[in-house]
Amino acid sequence: MASTPSLKRSDTIADSMPDALKQSRYYMKKCFARFVAQGKRLMKAQNIMKEVDQSIPDVQERSKVLEGLLGYILTSTQEAAVVPPCVAMAIRPNPGYWEYVKINADDLTVDGISASDFLKYKELIFDQDWANDENAVEIDFGAIDFLSPRATLPSSIGDGLSFITKHMSTGLSGFTGNAKHLVDYLQSLTHRGEKLMIDETLDTVECLQGALIVGESFVSTLPKNTPYHNFELRLKELGFEKGWGDTAERVRETMKMVSEVLQAPDPKNLELIFTRLPAIFNIVIFSPHGYFGQSDVLGLPDTGGQVVYILDQVRALEEEMLLRIKQQGLAFKPRIIVVTRLIPDAKGTKCNQEMEPIINTKHSHIVRVPFRTEQGILRQWVSRFDIYPYLERFSQDATAKVLQLMDGKPDLIIGNYTDGNLVASLMANKLGITQGTIAHALEKTKYEDSDAKWKELDPKYHFSCQFTADMISMNSTDFIITSTYQEIAGSKSRPGQYESHTVFTMPGLCRVVSGINVFEPKFNIAAPGADQTVYFPHTEKQRRFTTFKPAIEDLLFNKEDNNEHLGYLADKKKPIIFSMARLDTVKNISGLTEWYGKNKRLRDLVNLVVVAGFFDPSKSKDREEIAEIKKMHSLIEQYQLKGQIRWIAAQTDRYRNSELYRYIADSKGAFVQPALYEAFGLTVIEAMNCGLPTFATNQGGPAEIIVDGVSGFHIDPNNGIESSNKIAEFFEKCKTESDYWNKMSAAGLQRINECYTWKIYANKVLNMGATYGFWRKMSKDQKLAKQRYIHMLYSLQFRNLVKTIQIPVEEPLQPSLAE
Ligand code: UDP
Ligand code: LCN
C-alpha cells in the first residue's frame, strides 16, 4: 500500500475518514450498500476487499480510489460488524494500534466509537440480548493498570527488558531514597538462608556507597586473578558477603557498576548488574498436560514442540546458571524442576514415574504430580482442552512437592501453555515469587471467531476456560517470553496472538475491552534454538550418526506396508520433499499431500515423505487426529499416490530424526512446513540446522524465522497451487543452476546461527528473571492492585466455568467418538 499522505500523526481515523469518503462518494456509497445488503454479518479483511473489488469493477478506477487515505483505511480494517444501516469497523493502522469507527451506509457519516461500542455491534450479530444488556460483564485491565509504564513505538514491542531497565534507572535517580530500592534488593538476596552480596550493616545508600569505595580500592590492589576466598575475610569486615565475583577483577568490576548506579543510575550499568547478581538458583517450570517425557512421547496428541523446547531450555538454563554461579564466586548447585502430571496409565511411556533426572543435565529433574479429584487419582491421559478441573488442586499439590524438594521457595517460576501458565500464576502468587510465562501457541487465533462463537465450540474445546485462564496468567505474570515478534503483535497486515486478546468478546460470558496491552514492557522475544549436538549440517560427515543409516533406508524404501510406514517410493533417485508434524488439522499435512497429489509437475520432480501420527484411526483418542488419518488414506487413494509417497508413523527418536533430515538433505531435497498456522515451528529450525532448504508457512512464526527467497521460502497454506508451484520452481532451478541448492542450504544455516540458538536464549531468560524480580519489588503497589482484580476474575468467573467440564470416571469418552 502506498504511503498515507493525508493522515497526519495527530489525526484520528474518525477525523479524516469523512473527507476521504467524500472524495470517492459514488463508489463508497456503492461499496457500503453492498456491505449492508446481506443484513447483519461479521466481515473479515478479505471479505471487505472482495466487496470493494466488486463495487469498483474498473481496475484503474479502483486503484485510484484505493491510492490515498481511503485505501489505507480499508486495507487496515481487520473486521467489520455489519448491523444495517451501520458498519462498525476495527481498524489497525499499525501493530498494536487500533481505532474503531461506525459508518452509516445511507449517508456515509462517520463516528469514532470506543472498543466497548465496537464489541457491542459485534455482539448484536451473535447474541442480541447480551449486546443490549447494560450490565454485561466488561473486563478492563487497562482501567486497573494505568500507572505502569508503556512503550509507544511498535518497534519497541517485545524488547521489554531494555525498556524496563531504562525506566528503572529513572526510578532510582534523584533523591537517594529512590536508590534505596537497590539496597533493599541486594539485602534480599539469599541462598538457603545464607546472605549474599551485603550484610545487615549496609542498609542505607550512604553506608553501601562508603563501603564500596573502600572495597573497590582494596580489591584494586590485588592481582586480577586472585581467587575470592583469598580476600573474603577483608570484604566481610566491610559488610560484603559472597556473590560479587570469583576473582579480584570481577569483584572490582561489579562493585564499580553498583557504585556508579548508586551515584547516577544509567540503563547500561543497570542491565549489566542484573547479568551478574546472584538472584536465581532454583527454577520451577510447569508443563502439566502430558505426555511429558524424554522418550517415546513425541508425536502423541498434545505432545510436540513444547516438550522438546522445555528439555532443551532446561539444559541451556542449567549450563548458563552453572557458569554464572562460578563467576559469582559461589559453589551452589542450581536446581531446575520441571513439574508435569503423573499419568498412571502411561501407555508404555515413563509418565507414571514420579521423578526422572533430565538427560544431559547435572541437577535437573522431571517431577510428576498426579491429577487428583474427589474420586481419587485420575488414571488416564486427558486432552489439553479438558484439563481445567484438575489445575487448582494440582497447583496446591505441586507447590507442596516443590517446597519439599527444594527445601524452600524457588527463585523463579516459568509456566508453559495455558495450563502451565495458570498453575504458575497460582503458585507464584501464593509464594510471592517472580513469574515468567510462555504461550507456545495461543489457541484463540487458531480457530476463526473462536471468541464470538465460543458457545458453539465450548463443548469440544472449552475455550471459555482457556481464554479466561490465558488472560489471568498474561496479566498476572511478571514477564512473558515469546519466540517471535509476530506472536505478540503480528505483522503490518495481521494481528499478533497476544494482540488478539486486547479487545474481544465472548457474548453471554464477558466483553473484554482491555485484556492485555502489547506495549507492556513485560513482553520479551527470546527465540528457542534446536539442540546443535543433535541437529547439525549434513555436510559434517564425521559427526553423522551413521549407525542409523540402514534403519533410515529401511524406513524410506522398504516396499512393504507395516505399522511404521505406508506407501513406497518407486524412483529412489528423485529428491525428497519432507514434512514432520503431529497429525493436527492445523499442521495441514493432509493439505501438503493434496497439493502434491494435484501438481503433476511437482510429482515428476520429487517424492513426498511425511512423518505424522499413525495409520489406524480406531487407535486414536484425539478427534482431530482421527479425522486427519482418514483424510490421508483417502487422498492417497484419490490421487493414486502410492509409488511417490511414503507416509511414516510418528517418530520418537530425535537422534534418528536428525539423521532423517540429513539423509533428505543428502538427496538434495527440501523440508516443507505447510501449517495453516504455526506459532513458532521447531521443525523449521531443526531442518535448517541440518542444512535442508526449507519452505514454511507464511502464517505465524516461520514467516519471521525465514527471510523469503533469502534463507528459505514462504508458502501460503491457503493457496496450494501457488505453494506447490513455488516448490516445483525451486527444484527446476536446482536442475539448471548447479549451486543453487547449496546456496539456499548455507543461507538457512547462517540465519540459524545468527538468531536461533539456545545460548542466546538462556542468557536473555536469566537476565529477565533477575531484572523483573527487582522490578516487581519496585512496583509492588500496582502489582497488588492488579492481583486483587485477577483474583476476582479467577474465583468468580474461572472457577464457575471449570464446573462445565465433566470429569471422566473411567476412560474418558472422547467427544469425537461420541458424535
Ligand atoms: N516431532 C517428532 N516426531 C514426530 C513429530 C514431531 O519428534 O512424529 C518433533 C519435532 O522434531 C519437533 C517437535 O516434535 O521437535 C514439534 O515441534 P513444532 O514446534 O514443530 O510443533 P508442535 O508440535 O509443538 O506444534
Ligand atoms: C507449540 C507450537 O505449536 C509450535 O509452533 C512451537 O514451535 C512449540 O510449541 C514450541 O514453542
Indicate the structural class.
alpha/beta
Percent helix range = 40-55%
Cα separation of the termini: 47 Å
Main β sheet profile? 8 strands, mixed
CATH class of the largest domain, please?
Alpha Beta
The number of E-state strands comes to: 27
Q: Compute the number of helices.
A: 32
The low-confidence runs, each spanning 5 or more residues with pLDDT under 50, are: 1-5, 812-819
CATH superfamily of the largest domain: Glycogen Phosphorylase B
Mean pLDDT: 95
Largest sheet: spatial strand order: 11-12-10-9-15-16-17-20
C-alpha geometry:
globular
Specify the oligomeric state.
Answer: single chain
| CATH topology (fold) name of the largest domain | Rossmann fold
Strand content: 5-15%
The radius of gyration is 28 Å
Family: Belongs to the glycosyltransferase 1 family. Plant sucrose synthase subfamily.
InterPro entries: Glyco_trans_1, Sucrose_synth_GT-B1, Sucrose_synthase_pln/cyn, SUS_EPBD, SUS_N
Domain Glycosyl transferase family: 569-736
Domain Sucrose synthase first GT-B: 269-557
Summarize the entry for a quick read:
With 819 residues, the chain is α/β, with parallel strands linked by helices. The chain has 32 helices and 27 strands.
List the helices and strands and how they pair.
Blueprint: H1 13-23, H2 25-37, E1 41-44, H3 45-55, H4 59-67, H5 69-76, E2 77-83, E3 86-94, E4 97-104, E5 110-113, H6 115-126, H7 128-132, E6 138-140, H8 141-144, H9 160-172, H10 176-188, E7 190-191, E8 194-195, H11 205-220, H12 228-238, H13 248-263, H14 267-276, E9 282-286, H15 305-327, E10 335-342, E11 355-357, E12 364-370, E13 372-373, E14 376-377, H16 391-406, E15 412-416, H17 417-431, E16 434-438, H18 454-461, H19 463-476, E17 479-482, H20 485-489, E18 504-506, E19 510-514, E20 523-525, H21 549-557, E21 565-566, E22 576-580, H22 589-598, H23 600-605, E23 607-611, H24 623-638, E24 645-648, H25 654-666, E25 670-673, H26 682-689, E26 694-697, H27 702-705, E27 713-715, H28 720-736, H29 740-755, H30 758-778, H31 780-802, H32 815-818
Parallel strand pairs: 6-19, 9-10, 9-15, 10-12, 15-16, 16-17, 17-20, 22-23, 22-25, 23-24, 25-26, 26-27
Antiparallel strand pairs: 1-2, 2-3, 3-4, 4-5, 7-8, 11-12, 13-14, 18-19, 21-24
Helix pairs in contact: 2-3, 9-14, 9-30, 11-13, 13-14, 15-30, 16-17, 17-19, 19-31, 22-24, 22-28
Bound molecules: uridine-5'-diphosphate (UDP) and 1,5-anhydro-D-arabino-hex-1-enitol (LCN).
1,5-anhydro-D-arabino-hex-1-enitol is lined by residues 305-306, 309, 440-441, 483, 678-682, 701.
